Amino acid sequence: MAAAFAALVSLESNLRLIYNHPKYSFHFEEKQIQSLEGSVSFLIDFMKSYDNSLGARKQAAEALEMRIARAAQLAEDVIESHIVDQIRGGKTRSSRFLLDLQKAIEDMDYMRRKASNMRARSGSEQQRQTTYSSSSTVAAAQSTPLTSTMVGFDDILLQLLDLLTGVPSSRRVIPIQGMGGIGKTTLARNVFQHKNIVEHFDVCLWATISQEYSLHRILSELVSHLRKSNSGTVDELQERLYKSLCGPRYLIVLDDMWNVKALDDMMLLFPDTNSGSRIVVTTRHSDVAKHLGVSPVAMSFLDEDNSWHLFCQKAFAEQQGCPHELEETAKKIVAKCKGLPLAILVVGGHLRKSSMALDYWVHVAESIMNHTGNDEHCLNVLSLSYSHLPVHLKPCFLFLGAFPEDETIYVRDVYKLWIAEGLIQQGEYPSVEVAAWHCLWDLYLRNLILVYGWNHLYGIYTFKVHDLVREMCLKIAKEEEFLCVFQTPSAINRERRVVISGEANHEAMASDAPIRCLIWKRGRYDINNLYDLKLLRTLSNIATTSTSGSIFQQLNLRYLNVDLGYKIRPMLYYLPSSMSLLWNLQFLTINIADQSKVIAPYAIWEMLQLRRVEVDMICLIDPLPVDRLEQENHLVMRNLRLLFRVENFRLSDEVCKRIPNVIELRLSYCDEVNWYYCPRNLSCFNQLKVLWLKFDGNPKWREFVTSLTFPSTLEVLRLRGSGVHWEDLTMMVGSLPHFVELQLLQDSVTESIWNPKEEKFLRLKYLTIHGCDDLVHWNADRCHFPVLKCLYLSYLSKLEEFPSGIGEIATLKYICVRYCSASSTISAMRTLVEQVEQGNDSLRLDVFFRGDEETLESFKHRVEEEGLTSPNLSLQLVRS
After folding, report:
1. How many helices (H) and strands (E) does the chain have?
2. Which pLDDT score, from 0 to 100, does residue 325 have?
3. Which residues contact 59 (CB under 8 A, 6 or more apart)?
């Protein structure tokens, strides 16, 4: 049960912190804490090893798990309440606290005895299979990522391609209709990314509509994909979009359409210019498809052969087909999935990570109930996969229901919330962040998340959760009292994790509510109306115009995401020194208006539990001098991994000692050039991987930047306004052993000729040059960046020629040229065509060229004259 395991893991972490907190000394009876630790450790081991999904004991086990959850939650409430009281008023031990703690200890001890008896009665002390051990999880991490190849829909794919690229020339709407999980979005995505479609249409846009329909959100999404400003009213965005689509031949995909009203609203946005434009609508509702007055592309269930083929792809991805002894049972499992792709994928993903013992597969086959092919049947199959998840993954999986339907979810947000909520056990991993990464990867291998974006540093970058999978998350989370999502709550009784997607009801959040986690979606909530929720540990998406109110009185917070005057004029915001009383704050995110600043007190250096500090612009006071620091070396922020954006940050010896384990830094300098900032100390950060440096464009910064000593661990560097020369750049980072990505933004380099040197940038895989408008000649070939994979060039108006030799780099897969000079753009297209003609089919080029009507006509004429077309080339012309 997710709630029980999560409560135990969180309690275990707190008990450990009581004795090891780097700042506070808390007053507890040692024997009492040791007794609790013993019970918690036993119960965690019990939940990892006990299989409650088999036989008649399931109901009794679930009842016990519910009682374990409540006992662990009560114990954590008593302990954290006492800690907050100590911090607020210096209280030690009241008689009420002693009684409450003793009751919590007795309850946990009773749960331990009950669990021991149940384990003995089951006659099985053998730990069930789990992927939590380091060996199995590392193997998972090394597995080949699963593909999203369509299986069994080749004919439909070809039919849809014909409908999109054929006659008539008038605008045409094509609905794709079928039940949830049948593959509508996968089909649309495969078509959307098909090379014939990319070549045929001038503009391709994708918007997810979803059940929670917001016209402003959808317009903003579409306009942003056109690289235009997505701020403004609905009318302004609608006009901006409509005008942008009046000229080009466009393809619009409207995914997950739920009702006719939303469909009618959307149809008004897209002009019919007789250019062959197309609109694809995916929906599970037949009335939406019928409303369009055209026959839909109907998605049917997979036949027996294709179902088996898809299942084998997923269940036996690391083997050569299905073992003979499992084949009969495996085919029974596939048959019960009723040809539904999502069900086959999820069950296949589960079995891929499970035991290959025949009796286990027989149990899975018997567990899938026979229903007709509908959403309820799919939920039944999905819930089977949840039931057999390793217990440490269950809380992580259920928490994904906190994110809105169809939302693109950033992995960094998931990690922060998982860790803050105490859902992650570090175990044998080097850090809790690494443990969280392995949990997400495991969910991916089980096909429970849909990956949308990858990052070369961190792997999965963004993902989505299928509607039906999310529906299952919410259903189980509510049943297990793990998480509740409200539109507008009238009262909060037992709920500890609350997500509010609508308007807030202030009375529902009274101070005696048991809320531990409070998340707002679809908007920001005014914190000034929030009661003092003494034990609140996660507070997300809230707003305030003042830092002196109740926001920093929530002393138990582990996660805080707040807007400070986000909609008003630029201001200075002074954080109170009392913020250091937040004894376990780990994640601090502050959003402010442009040109505003947050001034942090010295006390922030005493917040030793901080892991990530993310502020749009923050000023930090220097920490204590060296002599004092040596006497107080316990005041070291060993957990801090990310810090941004710090203005005029002094890299003093004291700073280097305070944050020794920082991995990512984003710094901004706009003061007078001053050696006071200690640039040479940058090398002291011997775990630093990612560094962003922004300067105000003063050419005097060049000497400062070239004096920086970069640590050998650095992998990514982003520069802006630094004014260095190309030779400086080579000397600074060209020889770093792990350096893989270089981003050069506006005025980062101010020199007209770049002559790269051989034996430099030997590990560089990703190169971005944006707005370095002095660059005229770039004399590069395949020897200079031997392992380059992706190249992004933008706003280089003086660049005369794209270096054709770069196209010969064997590892190069992608080039993007955006709004550069006509000559460099044409030469890049010429390079691509030549490479494809020579058999290099893996290289792709995206071109965006902008100009007035005369410039665009001249450019098109040159392209046609030279025959610069290729399936691997995408060209978009934008009128300025």
Report:
1. 27, 30
2. 92
3. none
Residue at token pair 């201001």:
571
CA 202 to chain centre: 30
**One domain for residues 339 and 458:** no
| Domain annotation covers residue 845 | yes
User: Do 185 and 112 sit in the same domain of this protein?
Assistant: no
Question: What's the CATH code of the domain at 76?
Answer: 1.20.5
Boundary residue ending a domain (298, 323, 347): 298
User: Looking at residue 505, what is its pLDDT?
Assistant: 63
Domain that holds residue 309: 134-147+302-387
Condensed to tens digits (0 to 9), the pLDDT of residues 179-202 reads 778 889 989 999 998 888 988 898
pLDDT in tens, 86-118: 898 866 667 788 899 999 999 999 999 999 888
Q: Which two tokens stand for residue 438?
A: 């392995």
Q: Report d(CA 662, CA 643) in Å as an integer.
A: 8
Distant-in-sequence, close-in-space partners of 104: CB < 8 Å, separation ≥ 6: 36, 71, 74, 75, 78, 79
**Mode of pairing for the β-strands spanning 690-695 and 716-720:** parallel
* Rounded Cα–Cα distance for residues 860 and 868 (Å): 10
Task: Identify the three-state secondary structure at position 782.
Answer: coil
Q: Return phi, psi of residue 427, to 5°.
A: 55, -130
Q: Which of 372, 387, 402 marks a domain boundary?
A: 387
How many C-alpha atoms does 60 have within 13 Å on its Cβ side?
12
Using alpha carbons, select from 285, 241, 284 the residue that is nearest to residue 265: 241
Q: Same structural domain for residues 783 and 865?
A: yes
Place of tokens 């200690």: 678
Q: How far apart are CA 154 and CA 193, in angstroms?
A: 15
Rounded CA separation 798/812 (Å): 24
Provide the 3-class DSSP secondary structure of residue 807: helix
Cβ atoms of 482 and 6 within 8 Å: the answer is: yes
Residue 602 is assigned to a structural domain of this protein: no
DSSP codes of every residue in 50-87: --TTSSTHHHHHHHHHHHHHHHHHHHHHHHHHHHHHHH
- Lowest-confidence pick of 45-59, 718-732, 771-785, 828-842: 45-59
791 with 778, same domain: the answer is yes
Nearest Cα to 203, choosing from 829, 876, 872?
876
Mark residue 363 as left, alpha or beta (left: phi above 0; alpha: psi -120 to 50; beta: remaining). alpha
231 DSSP assignment: -
